[in-house]
Specification:
The protein is mainly beta. It is 5% helix and 47% strand.
Length: 126
């Protein structure tokens, strides 16, 4: 059983930067692609970015390109999401997720998630 724990959320003003972390409970994620999602109040959950375990390839949806950066530290079994130039509309619960044996494109375009974290809240308000 793979467990994912997000951290790093908080409250800040527009223009703020933040780094979210997703720590995995297992010692290896060799066959899992990791993705970041978010769900704003009253809206459906949406995918933001995905990263491969094997070669570090990444995928971003258009709305976050240039502002968010996904990365991973395999030695720490941790995936990060750097959020820059935050806006009020970025307010949401941010989730990480793992999908077995898939590409970043497949997970980000048509996710079939195997494991979810419980989320971390990011609030951007002036």
């Amino acid at each position: 059983q793979l467990q994912l724990v997000e951290s790093g959320g908080g409250l800040g003003q527009p223009g703020w930067s933040l780094r979210l972390s997703c720590a995995a409970s297992v010692s290896t994620l060799d066959y899992y692609t990791i993705g970041w999602f978010r769900q704003a109040p009253g809206k459906e959950r949406e995918v933001l970015s995905c990263i491969s375990r094997s070669d570090g390839s990444t995928y971003y949806v258009d709305r976050v390109k240039g502002r968010f950066t996904i990365s991973r530290d395999n030695a720490k079994n941790t995936v990060y999401l750097q959020l820059n130039s935050l806006k009020a509309e970025d307010t949401a619960v941010y989730y990480c997720a793992a999908q077995y044996d898939t590409t970043v494109q497949a997970m980000c375009i048509s996710p079939l998630v195997d494991y979810w974290g419980k989320g971390t809240l990011v609030t951007v308000s002036s």
